[in-house]
Structures are given as C-alpha cells and as structure tokens.
Amino acid sequence: MIHHFIVGVARSTEDEDSAWHSYLLCDTKHGVLQTHVLVVTSMARTEPGIEIIDTANVPEVVVQRLPLYVRVLGQFAANGTEVISSEQLGMHLQMTPAQIRKDLSYFGRFGKQGRGYDVQNLADRLRSILGLDKQWNAALLGVGRLGRAVVAYPGFEPEGFRIVAAFDADERLVGHEVGNMRVQAMSELEATVKERNITIGIVTVPAPYAQEVINLLVRAGIKSILNYAPIAPVVPPDVRVQGVDPVIALQSMTFYLKQH
Fold first, then answer.
1. Which of 106, 184, 223, 258 sits between 20 and 30 A of 137, alpha carbons compared?
2. HSE on the CB side for 205, CA within 13 Å?
C-alpha cells in the first residue's frame, strides 16, 4: 500500500496571475521514502491547470460563507464596482477584514496588498470553487404545497440548479404535471437518477416520511440533500444534508429579541 502526503511547498516569486506551486509529494513504498515534485498551477491562473485544495482542512463554516461572498460581489459588480477591499466586504457582511482574508486564504491567493480584489475575478473564482460554473440536476421529492412552491421558485436555474424530476408517494398525484414535469412514482427514483444525471435531492415531504424518503435518495446514490422537513436525518458519513427550517431560524432570533 502506498501512502501519499505533502511535505513541503514552494511558491514562485512571479505575480499572482502566473504563480505556481511546487509540492513535494512523498509516498512510502516497501519502507522506502520516495520523493516526487509536482508542479501545480495556482488557482489564480486563468489557463487550465491542476488545482489542489485540501478540502478536509476547510472549516464548514467557511464553505457556508462563500455563497454570501459571491452574492455580495455580484451586487458590487452590478453597480459597476471593479475593485473592492476586505474592509468594504466586511462592512457589507458584518465581518472583520481579517476573517475575510483568512477565509479566502484556504483557497489560494486573492487580490494584491494595498490594491484590493478584482470584483469580477474574485466572484468567478469563488463560483468555480463552489462548483457554480456548471449545471447541477436535482430531484424533488414531495409535490405538496411546499414542493410546488419550490419548483416554482425562479432563483434556482440562474445559479446552475435545475429541478429535472419530481416524485411523490401519493398515487393520486403521480402522472400529474408540476413545473412542466410529470410527477413520478417513488419506485422510479433510482432509474431516473441515473438516466438524468441527478446529483441533488430536495426533500419537501412531511416530517414523518422524511427519513424514509432520504433513505431512498441515499440508496439511489445521491450524496447531497436539501431537506425542508423539520427532522435531523440519519445518513452515511459521505452524504451531506443541508436543512432548511424557518422555525429554527426564528427560534435563534428570539435569543436576541429577549435582550430588549
């Protein structure tokens, strides 16, 4: 068995648009330490290259803040702003400039000291890091009032998310149209996931049925689930579940309200 690990990093002294990293990649084989040098283009380069991000070392809270950065940068770009400082970003996000710089440092070099960040370039790079530069197909499970509202929401597709299939366990709903899609039976889930390259499941069923539906998604090979049901589902370690619960959000707000 071969184990790989990085033991050193050297960065070029060129400007950040043509910077490269040289990683000393070591592996142990038959008790012998072998060293290889892998030249890797940095994330700042515009031409194709290999990008290495140790996602295991990126705190989840940092990943959750990246979409906020993208949103604010988009607002600045729409207003014609070309360069922005960490102080300006911090003011809009109610964060310290130091925290913003630390968050971005997990993913490479951004901006230049004393000059700030190129708004469009930073937005594009963060979108690439988040995978928002491609299209993601999603399946909706549960076409009740909440499910229909989710399908009708116009904000998904412009950001690269397409709901391409809808399912329900109620036989009275199967075959009906919702959002230009035919409602399918739950038994068709696994085959449809493969056929339509679905990678995200959106759960909008009542809480008592949510775990069972999430189990179906997991068995179908889905690794990312957006869950609107007010439960804490049990899933394998390699499956990510993001909960959307407005009641939880309101309950956290009352902590601050009671101070007044």
1. 106
2. 24
How far lies 37's CA from each of 5, 81, 178, in Å? 12, 41, 54
- Residues paired with 241 in a beta bridge: 225
> Residues spanned by CATH 3.40.50.720 within the chain?
136-248
CATH 1.10.10.10 range(s) for the chain read: 57-130
Which CATH architecture does the domain made up of 136-248 adopt?
A: 3-Layer(aba) Sandwich (3.40)
pLDDT tens figures, 181-214: 999 999 999 999 999 999 999 999 999 999 999 9
DSSP 42-66: -TT-SS-------GGGS-HHHHHHH
Q: Which amino acid does the sequence have at 214?
A: I
- Half-sphere exposure for 255 (CA within 13 Å, toward CB): 5
Which one-letter DSSP state was computed for residue 188? G
- Chain length of the chain: 260
Calpha distance 260→255 (Å, rounded): 10
Nearest to 117 by CA among 95, 100, 96: 100
Cα gap 154→144, rounded to integer Å: 18
- Mean pLDDT value of segment 205-229: 97
CB-based contact 197:207 (threshold 8 Å): no
For domain 57-130, which CATH number applies: 3.40.190.10, 1.10.10.10, 3.40.50.11540, 1.10.760.10?
A: 1.10.10.10
The pTM assigned to this predicted structure is 0.75
